[in-house]
Specification:
The protein is of the alpha/beta class. It has seven helices and ten strands. The protein has helices spanning 50-58, 80-90, 106-111, 121-134, 150-162, 180-197, 208-211, and strands spanning 6-19, 22-35, 39-43, 65-70, 73-74, 91-94, 168-172, 200-204, 216-221, 224-230. A six-stranded mixed sheet has the order 6-7-8-3-9-10, sandwiched between helices. Strand 7 (168-172), helix 6 (180-197) and strand 8 (200-204) form a beta-alpha-beta unit. Helix 4 (121-134) packs across helix 5. The longest helix is centred in the C-terminal third of the chain and has 18 residues, at 180-197. The chain is globular, with a radius of gyration of 18 Å. The mean pLDDT is 90.
Length: 233
């Protein structure tokens, strides 16, 4: 059921793919409501549908059946252009492998999403500077990705995700390519951003240590919701 406090609400949500003439049911009958301002971990074994669900929330993919409301918008009903505009405004996405543009500096990578909005150069500069400062990487603003450590690259990627001040921050295995020390630093950063900025964070992870930073965990298995619980912090 969708309430005013829900940023994500899905009822009987399904996602199927056709593969070799057969129907692959990736998600089946997902009923889920996530509160605005929550920090949620999506957990489950490989192939359980975690990333597919995250991509539905992001509007990257469209549901096969069921309803999906995200930040008050029925995104399945949007045209492709309207969906792109909505995504640029409402969603920040953090990838496991950073997806930074190698020929752009950290500053320029963070600035990229702002070109989809009507902003002055001064306003873009202000937002990029604030985002880089928020993730603690202002001193690396002129560095290229190849000049950064994995942890630093992920901080730039997080700055890029938050620079538009989206209502929803989605993270797909944000620490999966990092060593334990760097991973812990990234999770402490996401926790601080969540508390300071009040953004909703939905994070896919298979790692219990990473999931422990979230306030709530949602477990999927074979495309079905099997457990949802509040984490005792």
């Amino acid at each position: 059921m969708h309430t005013n406090n829900s940023i994500i609400s899905c009822v009987a949500l399904e996602k199927h793919y056709s593969r070799g003439g057969e129907t692959v049911r990736v998600l089946e009958s997902i009923d889920l409501s996530l509160a605005r301002g929550a920090f949620v971990a999506l957990m489950g074994p490989s192939g359980s549908g975690k990333t597919t669900l995250l991509n539905l929330f992001a509007g990257i993919d469209r549901p096969t059946a069921g309803s999906l409301m995200v930040d008050g918008q029925d995104i399945a009903r949007l045209s492709r252009s309207a969906l792109a505009e909505w995504r640029a405004r409402s969603v920040g996405y953090i990838f496991q492998l950073y997806h930074l543009v190698p020929v752009l500096t950290a500053y320029e990578n963070v600035e990229l999403p702002l070109y989809l909005q009507t902003l002055t150069r001064r306003e873009r500069h202000r937002r990029v500077s604030e985002a880089l400062e928020a993730v603690g990487i202002s001193d690396r603003h002129a560095h290229y990705p190849r000049q950064l450590s994995g942890g630093q690259e992920q901080r730039v990627a997080i700055a890029r995700a938050i620079v538009t001040n989206p209502a929803l921050l989605l993270a797909d295995e944000p620490t999966g390519d990092l060593d334990r020390a760097a991973a812990s630093g990234i999770m402490e950063l996401l926790t601080r951003l969540h508390k300071e900025r009040g953004q909703t964070i939905v994070m896919v992870t298979h790692d219990p240590a990473t999931a422990a930073f979230a306030e709530r965990s949602v477990h999927l298995d074979k495309g079905q919701l099997v457990e949802s619980k509040v984490v005792q912090l």
